[in-house]
Design a protein that fits this description.
The protein is α+β, with helices and mostly antiparallel strands. 51% of the residues lie in helices and 13% in strands. The C terminus is likely disordered.
């Protein structure tokens, strides 16, 4: 092919510096393009001066020879991409039994090193067809034992192959000695600990590592106490792995805690996985005062650390003092957003007596306070928006007036933008419809006062008192008893009691919304020239030519035998204000009805012996068959 390309140079179709790259491309038959990826050269046309190349998404692509020489990189037949095309089955067999050979092939294909992402991208899913993570974990263990591979500590750094074999212990100890700073040294010490079983002489490695760590601990004990604690934990773990004991005179965790002035600040600097161990070491170092110190930092640390502190306090029998501290911070609106975030995430029945409407008030205050601090995050606000149940759970046990007050506070709060605020308000309205008027400013017929009979009003009041004084307290006792049975996740009695609690609280809210609007009446002396509340009316169903009698009373009144219906029922709403002789049309149970008002009279209770008052213009109404209507549901 070189002669053919030389002829093209002579003809002026390509430059001389294109010849060598074109010869290599033609001989190997495979290439890489920076945008189109791997390609196979299927035809070399020296007459028209072009290559025909199959790329993954551009089959049969034609490319000018000069352009190909400048833009294509030739690859050998040993390259992993070529092997995948020509002999995929052998690669799959290699992946099954010879992990290191496959990884070495990938590394050599990319110049001796490649990142984990590059390795995964080239092998999955064609070569590694099943669980990549499982395969890589097994391969990684072999890589660390083999002296030819350099496995980086960070995933973003490349894995490398080296011809000279270096043992795992020699490599790790070399990196440990050369590490810049205690933090970097702790990372490599962690590798020593994880690979202790594969070290040639683990005891010697641990002895050297512990000596270096002890020197670092002394120099960091005052300036970087959190890092010194980590180093002590690592030192002790290495010793435990090697079966070695402590050395007399070396620093321990109690020595670090003895000189710490800001407990919360130090704990925040410790990595989250070490929080529990750090707290335990503090408890052992300060047996008389640790619980007070932990309660004192709850309002200054992150939600994750709050959780660890609270867990330790509860486990050691300090629940009551913890709840007292929480209640004080919440009632005084001094609780931090991180403390409230932990409480919102926790939401366990351990703190059920604290989780209430005041928590939401404190949340609004904390979020507003954080708006003036650029360093504070919006995690609490985001959690309130994301958790669809939180807001309702916090306020569900409150009186309706408290809920209305919280609704006003949310409306006025600058903590949420308009769209987020509408979303939160909608959650409140869904469970407590009576607050709708606070949001919309509209007063529909259902939102106005309810005219009710004195008897029905007393019945509702009796139901409310029974609910508040007997049923809800009894349910609270059932919850407490069920909670004592243990694991709440599998506690069916507890779940049933909590579900009953939700139903009782919803009914309580409904009754409060109804009673606050109810206006008792005895329906005496109503007008008799038009249909109104407290009147008897005879109508004729014009479609069936059938006469019916109705007594229109209060919102909660219905008695089919006495022909009593609520003034809020569909038929009563159609008749109100109509005179004798007028006709009305309305829908009832999905069907259109056409009625004529025949006569109107004032209502008299059935027990009274007096005759009905005179009607206008019809005579007193005779009894009629019971109307075929359904009682209206109590307004929400």
């Amino acid at each position: 092919m070189r002669e053919e390309f030389e002829k093209l140079v002579a003809a002026g179709k390509i430059s001389r510096h294109h010849v060598d790259p074109l010869v290599v491309l033609a001989e190997t038959g495979y290439c890489l393009h920076r945008s189109w990826g791997f390609g196979r050269i299927t035809q070399v046309d020296t007459v028209f001066g072009r290559f025909t190349i199959d790329f993954p998404n551009k089959a049969g692509h034609s490319m000018d020879l000069a352009f190909a020489a400048d833009s294509l990189k030739p690859i050998s037949r040993d390259h992993i991409l070529v092997r995948k095309m020509e002999d995929l089955n052998s690669l799959r067999q290699m992946a099954a039994v010879r992990h290191l050979d496959l990884i070495r092939l990938v590394l050599e294909s990319y110049g001796g090193k490649a990142t984990l992402d590059q390795i995964q991208q080239v092998l999955v899913p064609d070569v590694i067809t099943e669980d990549w993570k499982k395969w890589w974990d097994a391969a990684k263990r072999e890589l660390k034992k083999d002296g030819h591979f350099v496995v980086p500590l960070k995933k973003s750094e490349p894995l490398a192959f080296q011809a000279k074999e270096v043992s795992l212990q020699d490599r790790l100890m070399s990196e440990f000695r050369g590490a810049k700073g205690l933090k970097a040294r702790l990372v490599i010490a962690g590798e020593l600990l994880r690979n202790f079983a594969d070290l040639g002489d683990g005891n010697a490695a641990v002895t050297e590592a512990v000596a270096l760590l002890n020197t670092e601990i002394v120099s960091h004990q005052r300036t970087l106490s959190a890092l010194a604690l980590e180093a002590i934990f690592m030192r002790d773990d290495l010793r435990a792995a090697a079966g070695q004991g402590p050395v007399e005179g070396e620093l321990a965790t109690k020595d670090i805690w003895a000189q710490v002035d800001h407990l919360g600040r130090v704990l925040e600097q410790v990595p989250a996985p070490k929080h529990k161990r750090s707290l335990q070491s503090f408890k052992e170092a300060k047996p008389a005062e640790w619980h007070e110190a932990l309660s004192g930092i709850l309002n200054t640390v992150t939600a994750k650390l709050c959780s660890e502190c609270a867990t330790l306090l509860v486990a050691e029998g300090h629940l009551d003092s913890l709840k007292t501290s929480l209640a004080r911070l919440i009632s005084q609106h001094q609780a931090s957003s991180e403390l409230l975030l932990w409480l919102a995430k926790e939401r366990s029945d351990t703190f059920a007596d604290i989780l209430g409407p005041e928590v939401f008030r404190a949340m609004l205050t904390a979020i507003e306070r954080d708006q003036f601090n650029e360093k504070k995050s919006n995690r609490l606000r985001d959690f309130i928006l994301d958790d669809q149940e939180l807001l309702v759970e916090l306020i569900e046990a409150a009186d309706i007036e408290v809920i209305k007050d919280l609704t006003r506070a949310l409306q006025l709060s600058p903590s949420f933008d308009d769209m987020d605020k509408r979303s939160l308000l909608a959650r409140i309205v869904k469970h407590f419809p009576s607050v709708q008027t606070l949001i919309s400013g509209e007063h529909t017929r259902q939102d106005a006062a309810l005219v009710v009979s004195w008897d029905s009003l007393e019945r509702r009041k009796t139901e409310y008192n029974e609910l508040v004084q007997k049923k809800i307290p009894a349910n609270s006792r059932d919850i407490a008893v069920a909670r004592s049975y243990g694991d709440l996740r599998e506690n069916h009695e507890y779940k049933a009691a909590k579900e009953a609690h939700r139903l009782l609280m919803r009914r309580k809210s409904e009754l409060e919304a109804q009673l606050v609007r109810a206006r008792g009446a005895d329906f005496t002396n109503p007008r008799s020239d038009v249909v109104g509340i407290g009147t008897r009316v005879r109508v004729t169903d014009l479609a069936a030519n059938h006469a019916e009698d109705y007594q229109i009373l209060g919102a909660w009144d219905f008695d089919a035998e006495q022909h009593i219906i609520s003034y809020l029922s569909p038929i009563a709403q159609a008749l109100l204000g109509k005179k004798a002789g007028e006709e009305v049309q309305f829908e009832l149970e999905g069907a259109k009805r056409h009625y004529r008002v025949d006569a109107i009279a004032t209502y008299k209770p059935a027990a009274e012996p007096t005759a009905p008052a005179a009607v206008h213009p019809a005579p007193p109404l005779p009894s009629a068959p019971a109307p075929d209507v359904s009682a209206p549901a109590p307004p929400a």
